[in-house]
Structure formats: C-alpha cells, structure tokens
Specification:
six-stranded mixed β-sheet; globular; 2 helices; single chain; about 150 residues
Length: about 150
C-alpha cells in the first residue's frame, strides 16, 4: 500500500512538471503519467505539506487534516462534476481531476482556492468552447486540458 502511494506520488510530481501549459500553449509528452491499476476503479490521493501521501476513499475523512493538504488527486472515478466537498480544502495548490467524465465547469468551481497554482482536467469530455471560456475567466493558475474530447 505504501509503495503504491509512493509510486503514485512520484508519478504525480513528474506529472506536475510536464503537461499542456496554459502560458506556452505547447503540448509535451505525458505518456508516463501514472493512472490507477487496471484492477482498481480510480485512485484518490492527498498530498500533505510534509511531503507525505495519503490515500482516501471519501473527502470528508480528510477534514481533520485539511489545513495540511496541498494537493488532491481524484482520477478515474467517473466524476461528472467537481466535487462540492473540495471547497473545504482552501489550502490546495494543486488539484488533479483527470480521467473522469466532467463535461462542464462552473465559474466558481475553483474560486475557493486562493493558493491554487495548477489544475489538471486532462482526459475529460470538456468542449473546446468550455475550455476557452474557463481559461479566459481564470488566469491566476495554470490549467491542463490534455486529451480532452473536444465536442
């Protein structure tokens, strides 16, 4: 379990340094990106300010340590919207909701995160117009939309 979390953390760190940059508009190789193993349905990890990683099943179980969490990754969980419970974690600098089924972004979905630096929404069925609208309205952080199904 710890080895699995460490490997995912290393992959997530590598993932944070490479991607589709909003500023440069260039696409980089992300073929090594870590995903959930085939026998699991998704992965949910919290990255703490002391460089530890905690796997979780429900965001509410992280509430006692919410001020220590700087990153959350919820991948391959068939999310269709940004989880409302995420708003309880205002110290987040990185949010990764890649490989889900999110189709629309609300203007205020990420407004509760004053420290947000990077937002990963790779491989979600978000339309090109939705992406352009979001980028125009949210220029305070980098947003990655690689491999989205532009409808």
């Amino acid at each position: 379990m710890k080895l699995h979390a460490i490997l995912l953390f290393v992959g997530f760190c590598m993932y944070l340094t490479v991607g589709f940059s909003q500023q440069s508009g260039t696409q980089r190789d992300m073929s090594y990106q870590k995903q959930a193993p085939a026998n699991e349905k998704g992965v949910q990890l919290a990255y703490l300010d002391d460089s530890t990683v905690k796997e979780f099943k429900n965001l509410n179980e992280l509430l006692p340590i919410k001020n220590k969490i700087v990153g959350i990754s919820i991948q391959n969980k068939d999310l269709t919207a940004v989880p409302a419970e995420l708003k309880n974690f205002s110290h987040l600098t990185t949010i990764d909701l890649s490989h889900n089924k999110i189709t629309h972004l609300q203007t205020n979905d990420f407004s509760k995160f004053p420290k947000l630096q990077k937002l990963y929404l790779n491989d979600n069925p978000i339309s090109k117009s939705e992406i352009e609208k979001y980028r125009k309205e949210n220029q305070k952080h980098e947003v990655y939309f690689d491999k989205n199904q532009f409808q």
